[in-house]
Automatic annotation (TrEMBL), chains A, B:
Keyword rRNA processing set for record: no
PANTHER family: PROSTAGLANDIN REDUCTASE, PROSTAGLANDIN REDUCTASE 1
Record protein name field: Uncharacterized protein
Gene3D superfamilies referenced in this protein's UniProt entry, alphabetically: Medium-chain alcohol dehydrogenases, catalytic domain, NAD(P)-binding Rossmann-like Domain
An example molecular function term from Gene Ontology annotations: 2-alkenal reductase [NAD(P)H] activity
Keyword Oxidoreductase among UniProt keywords: yes
InterPro entries with a match to the protein in the record: ADH-like_C, ADH_N_2, GroES-like_sf, MDR_fam, NAD(P)-bd_dom_sf
Domain Alcohol dehydrogenase-like C-terminal: 173-306
Record keywords, A-Z: Oxidoreductase
Domain Oxidoreductase N-terminal residues, every copy: 13-121
Length: 351, 351
């Protein structure tokens, strides 16, 4: 148990969410405040923990949480104007009132965009057991993006050897893993991304069979026909809109679409319409949305699968690390113009 | 085997498909011809059968087959201008060169919109074994609409007792059955239709819990919230467009959408856009298209299930029978303005 008596408050730099956003988020929708303070001891009687934040995760889904709450969306955990952004990160325990955590433990899960956080909600907080990998990996390949790729691919896509797999936003935190999982299984894998640099990465670093820059393709239907002359068995959907419409035209009979995210739509007041849903019927396609929270029970199995692959170099992971809490707003906003190359992380402190 | 020698040609009235259609089909897209003739004997050496057509089925899907063939749509069996419409029906065998069929047999399956047909493709032709039900039922409850409802509901919707089920175009050939299957299983069932008469049928004849006239509902989202305060578990999709968008807002977590047809979209040059697909992710919805051809192996099991229910009056079926081959064009066109009440059938001959 924590002991009281130490009342020293220290400065706690924070990234504050200013107000609800419509359209593209801007850096000015957030600001860095140095007015906050925190006591590095757990309050008497609390079962909370005080942590020092090391790495913070920039996630596309955060955009949805910046919208003014809509009564229809019970599934979104909205941000609150005037408070620090909260999200996933890696942190070190400085003091603990919780039996499962002790000083010095490393954890990953829900924390705040600030130097130090008092965590009292443990629904999404895991103790890090394997530290022979970069700690930042727990915001990515060993964290929710990794579990998202694993659950989405193996549980939703019903993949089998030889399947033709297409992945949009393929160089992102989730896409790069799905592609590598599919390659390991013996699939033919094509990814789309938004720059030549990313396309090169997909082909050379992540060993996709093919990749293309969607910004340079005036006719996505023709593009997909070029890469999938026999059609697509599995589409791992990260973007939505026009890409989904083109994919629907190119799916094979009994194809599967795993809907993981629709990043092209998050900043639109009204999402684009998708017109080709008739092809769901023509081709008996199963399109299934999923959220990683339904796959937490698979996390131990996932680590057992992925840690040896990392150790043997069979799966590689690319991060884009922005230095300093101050870089948080630009790093987060950059996701939506595709500035990041690989998983976007904010480094708050090395240890 | 058929014997040759009888060369008498008799008149064979036919409904001819005039030319490819865009927009709503009109009666004038077809015409009745009395110029055709047929010989009521199977040609020497053929394994075909000659039948007298009794009942013809009017199916929404025929609209798709009237469009000019699009290279993208490998799954549509297009109609050919200048030839009789072909489709499903009930017929009586007059002469047979096929070992599985003999004179006097009753069959259902692919035939032509004409008085007599020479059938040489047996991929979709079944001998009728149970004749203690109206023969016209083999165009509906005991034919493809019945198997569609059975396969779509039990194989795609993963239904369970207590589920909240919504069915669009609910008084149609398929919808009326899905609703009754769901009621038998102990679900709460609501249907939409396009007239007061149909709404009354859904509530009084088919025993749906609730039903509404979508044409009188200015805000479908509000309508669905009124009938499904706890959300929808299963949506049996027959219409698409605005209804699908409203349903997506009202699905429950882990809901299932079986996409059977999108009749509201068939007559549009460009289908309406569907905007709320994000809810597939928020609520982890599985949306799956299906076609009845994948469920042919279930047909014997389906008959075993449904025949006793019909005999005991636990499942009722409503047909809208137009008299005479000449009424074919208007009966078919009427589907798209919702003129039919129940399964639309054309009676060509009683026996």
């Amino acid at each position: 148990m924590a002991s009281g008596g130490d009342d020293e408050q220290i400065r706690n730099k924070q990234v504050i969410f200013k107000d609800y956003v419509s359209g593209f988020p801007k850096e000015s929708d957030m600001y860095v405040s140095t007015k906050g303070t925190i006591r590095l001891k757990v309050p008497d009687g609390s079962n909370g923990i005080v942590v020092k934040n090391l790495y913070l995760s920039c996630d596309p889904y955060t955009r949805n949480r910046m919208t003014k709450p809509d009564t229809g969306n019970y599934y979104v955990n909205y941000l609150k104007p005037g408070l620090p952004i909260n999200g996933l990160g890696v942190a070190k325990v400085l003091d603990s009132g919780h039996p499962n955590f002790k000083k010095g433990d490393l954890v990953w899960g829900n924390t705040g965009w600030e130097e130090y956080s008092l965590i009292t909600d443990f629904q999404l907080l895991f103790k890090i057991q394997h530290s022979n990998v970069p700690l930042s990996y727990y915001t990515g390949i060993l964290g929710l993006p990794g579990l998202t790729a694993y659950g989405g691919f193996y549980e939703v896509c019903s993949p089998k050897k030889g399947d033709n797999v297409f992945i949009s936003a393929a160089s992102g935190a989730v896409g790069q893993l799905v592609g590598q999982f599919a390659k390991l299984l013996g699939c033919y894998v094509v990814g789309s991304a938004g720059s030549k640099e990313k396309v090169d990465l997909l082909k050379n670093k992540f060993k996709f069979n093919e990749a293309f820059n969607y910004k340079e393709e005036p006719d996505l239907d023709a593009t997909l026909k070029r890469y999938f002359s026999e059609g697509i068995d599995i589409y791992f959907e990260n973007v939505g809109g026009k890409m989904l419409d083109a994919v629907l035209l190119n799916m094979r009979a009994h194809g599967r679409i795993a809907a993981c995210g629709l990043i092209s739509q998050y900043n639109l007041d009204k999402p684009e319409g998708v017109h080709n849903l008739m092809h769901l019927i023509y081709k008996r396609i199963r399109m299934e949305g999923f959220v990683v929270f339904d796959y937490f029970h698979l996390y131990p199995k996932f680590l057992e699968f992925v840690l040896p692959q990392i150790a043997e170099g069979k799966i590689v992971y690319l991060e884009d690390i922005a230095e300093g809490l101050e870089s948080g707003p630009s790093a987060l906003v950059g996701l939506f113009s595709g500035l990041n190359v690989g998983k976007q992380v904010v480094l708050v402190a090395r240890e």
